[in-house]
């Protein structure tokens, strides 16, 4: 899953741009997820679920034609991004905000940009050109594994090369297995991912489940002594 974020000052058209990017990527055939970063409470107060929360529920969920889960705490961004990628496996995650994170980003304000900015736009942006840039220069979540398999010593060096348009790829994105310990994703190199995936799959198969019917396995371990 590649990530693109939209950053910029308040009221500079970030949400409009996010919507255009989502629509454009969808029209190019991609599965797309969206994530908004805000320092506010999300407003469910008038709804039944908001009332449950007022009554003290620490987690509130709604299940119908759509599903949502509302927690009364801010998750670590990398944990949430891992969950999104694991639950839906989208091709792209479009984020509004997170201007200090090392995501490829597009800025709607010339004064708000960093070394991961691939473009700065005003209201006259050409969406197809932006989509081309996003396809070419965005990349997945970097966990500072610094394994060097992409040809760079550090993940940040890789990201900067990618932002500049070099034809490079991270070789250690989570593919076969993900590990999250105490809400923090743990970088695993591809070899370790394969070992974990094949070991757990072998154990599940020994429970007499047919491997052909298994698409993925989620294993949660808690209450460790
Ligand atoms: S291959 Fe990926 S994880 Fe390894 S250094 Fe390059 S960017 Fe970082």
From TrEMBL:
Q: Report any Pfam family annotated for this entry.
A: FeS
| Chain ranges of the 4Fe-4S domain | 129-194
Gene3D superfamilies hit by this protein: P-loop containing nucleotide triphosphate hydrolases (3.40.50.300)
GO BP terms, alphabetized:
Mo-molybdopterin cofactor biosynthetic process
Note whether Lipid biosynthesis occurs among the keywords. Answer: no
Question: Which GO molecular-function terms appear in the entry?
Answer: 4 iron, 4 sulfur cluster binding; GTP binding; metal ion binding
Under the heading InterPro entries, the entry gives: 4Fe-4S_dom, MGD_biosynthesis_adapter, MobB_dom, P-loop_NTPase
Q: Which UniProt keywords apply?
A: 4Fe-4S, Iron, Iron-sulfur, Metal-binding
Under SUPFAM superfamilies, the record lists: P-loop containing nucleoside triphosphate hydrolases (SSF52540)
Mind telling me what this protein is named?
Molybdopterin-guanine dinucleotide biosynthesis protein B
* PANTHER family xref list: MOLYBDOPTERIN-GUANINE DINUCLEOTIDE BIOSYNTHESIS ADAPTER PROTEIN (PTHR40072:SF1), MOLYBDOPTERIN-GUANINE DINUCLEOTIDE BIOSYNTHESIS ADAPTER PROTEIN-RELATED (PTHR40072)
